[in-house]
């Protein structure tokens, strides 16, 4: 135990970690290796989101070899496969056991404030604590986004958010409107479509990518091209990349593309972005064609980058190809009668907003996102971990969290040493 912990008593820790998901546990692993005392505070149970907020057919969209939590790499016999939900939970359970973090579950953090003279005061549902440093590892997906128009929809229509979707059988009879075509929306729409449900899909601006190209998983090519090592400051969009929607693709049944045009040719009905609801009618923007074209352009652009890599390094591979649309909308339909379409349920898949209202620190921008450099904020002793593109593409995923946690552990150790000298 550090000198500061001995000075302040049993409710004081050198570091308090807020959040017991893979980010918080990764931080605990690194702090244990550095010999720094700490406490993990978790509002529910460790890694609960993987058990409670994933549908039955959920699987990874990145290959298993990218599961590289610190000290706990994927050790199965299918590195290029895609773990299903229960396999992911089993992998995480092994990580939980290995880390054996000092954690208090069912303890929600209500307020974090800075203390005079340095450090932080942490108020929780289980009492108050103090800490020299705080790591916020609660992720950035807190509040489901549901538009206010949802309040005006008929009570007969069941509305759920993507985190609450489980399977097609759990929804009422009738057609299903899926709003949003990011990773969750596209995969849930596919899940319903494969089950034979009538699906209407409001297509947004999410890009897509190929699952396999020129004989390999696209992720393998991008890893060779060092895309996953690119820091946010090196990305062409700089910090703007953090606002990007993830590409839709799936690892289901061994992995494949998700082609919304193919679904449309099989009976799924596609619309542009949902804009409003009035007098029994859903209203859509006339941008379906544009959104599909833009998604395909990204698909082809990624593949073209792989083509250049193959040519540059004289790699033997199957021939290049360019995606050609298998279906094109005949017109831009901007309205849908809910009753005539027999819609019994709507699944909102338009993302989440961050909610750090409990953290009293001047580090947030107008969108509620913290300002930081690789997780280190302008407030001394306050850090973030596990956010998308915190440092690289993998920062919010199993693949990059170890590097970020190790970096922050080094910064925390440096500051702990400074505090000890000052004391």
Automatic annotation (TrEMBL):
<protein>
    <submittedName>
        <fullName>Oxidoreductase CzcO</fullName>
        <ecNumber>1.-.-.-</ecNumber>
    </submittedName>
</protein>
<dbReference type="InterPro" id="IPR024000">
    <property type="entry name" value="CHP04046_FMN-dependent"/>
</dbReference>
<keyword id="KW-0560">Oxidoreductase</keyword>
<dbReference type="InterPro" id="IPR050982">
    <property type="entry name" value="Auxin_biosynth/cation_transpt"/>
</dbReference>
<dbReference type="GO" id="GO:0016491">
    <property type="term" value="F:oxidoreductase activity"/>
</dbReference>
<dbReference type="InterPro" id="IPR036188">
    <property type="entry name" value="FAD/NAD-bd_sf"/>
</dbReference>
<dbReference type="Pfam" id="PF13738">
    <property type="entry name" value="Pyr_redox_3"/>
</dbReference>
């Amino acid at each position: 135990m550090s000198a500061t912990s001995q000075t302040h008593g049993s409710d004081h820790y050198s570091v308090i970690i807020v959040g017991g998901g893979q980010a918080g546990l990764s931080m605990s692993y690194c702090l244990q290796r550095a010999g720094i005392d700490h406490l993990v505070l978790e509002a529910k149970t460790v890694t609960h989101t993987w058990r409670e907020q994933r549908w039955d057919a959920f699987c990874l969209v990145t290959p298993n070899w990218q599961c590289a939590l610190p000290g706990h790499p994927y050790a199965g016999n299918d590195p290029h496969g895609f773990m299903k939900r229960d396999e992911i939970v089993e992998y995480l359970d092994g990580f939980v056991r290995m880390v054996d973090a000092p954690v208090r579950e069912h303890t929600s953090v209500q307020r974090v404030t800075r203390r005079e003279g340095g450090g932080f005061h942490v108020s929780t549902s289980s009492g108050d604590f103090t800490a020299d440093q705080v790591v916020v590892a609660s992720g950035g997906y807190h509040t489901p986004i549901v538009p206010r128009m949802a309040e005006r929809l008929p009570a007969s229509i069941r509305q759920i958010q993507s985190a609450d979707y489980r399977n097609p059988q759990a929804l009422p009879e009738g057609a299903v409107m899926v709003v949003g075509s990011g990773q969750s929306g596209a995969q849930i729409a596919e899940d319903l479509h494969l089950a034979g449900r009538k699906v209407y899909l409001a297509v947004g601006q999410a890009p897509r990518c190929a699952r396999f190209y020129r004989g390999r998983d696209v992720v393998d090519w991008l890893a060779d091209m060092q895309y996953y090592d690119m820091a946010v400051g090196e990305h062409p969009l700089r910090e703007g990349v953090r606002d990007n929607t993830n590409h839709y693709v799936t690892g289901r049944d061994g992995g494949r593309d998700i082609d919304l045009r193919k679904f449309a040719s099989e009976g799924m009905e596609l619309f542009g972005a949902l804009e409003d609801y009035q007098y029994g009618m859903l209203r859509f923007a006339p941008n379906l064609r544009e959104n599909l074209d833009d998604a395909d352009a990204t698909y082809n652009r990624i593949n073209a980058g792989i083509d250049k890599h193959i040519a540059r390094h004289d790699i033997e591979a199957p021939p290049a190809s360019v995606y050609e649309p298998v279906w094109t909308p005949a017109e831009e339909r901007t309205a849908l009668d809910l009753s005539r379409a027999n819609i019994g349920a709507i699944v909102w898949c338009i993302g989440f907003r961050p909610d750090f209202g409990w953290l009293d620190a001047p580090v947030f921008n107008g969108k509620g996102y913290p300002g930081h450099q690789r997780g280190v904020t302008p407030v001394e002793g306050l850090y973030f971990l596990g956010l998308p593109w915190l440092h690289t593409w993998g920062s919010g995923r199993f693949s990059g969290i170890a590097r970020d946690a190790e970096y922050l552990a080094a910064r925390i150790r440096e500051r702990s040493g400074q505090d000890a000298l000052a004391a």
